[in-house]
Design brief:
about 90 residues, mainly alpha, 434 Repressor (Amino-terminal Domain)
Length: about 90
């Protein structure tokens, strides 16, 4: 998951960075800011949890760290950017 996709997901859910830090059990909103800016890699479990929160089910982590979900078919496709709704 790219940092901008993670940020869009957070905004779609209506969380501030500090609120999301509490949900993800990380030290502070500063950690979320670093993930969203690309200063730090987003940990795999955080990617999966964000996928669950946004799509209602966990998304797998591909080696390229990008993936997509076909909601109708209920399938995943690796190596494609996640289209998080605006």
């Amino acid at each position: 998951m790219k940092p901008e996709e993670f940020r869009k997901g957070r905004r779609l859910l209506g969380f501030s960075q500090n609120d999301l830090a509490k949900v993800f059990k990380v030290s502070s909103g500063r950690t979320i800011r670093k993930w969203e800016s690309g200063e730090r890699d987003i940990p795999g479990p955080a990617e999966v949890l964000m996928g669950f929160l946004v799509y209602g089910q966990p998304l797998p982590i591909s080696p390229s760290r990008t993936f997509s979900l076909d909601r109708e078919k209920g399938t995943y496709r690796a190596n494609a950017a996640v289209p998080i709704p605006e």
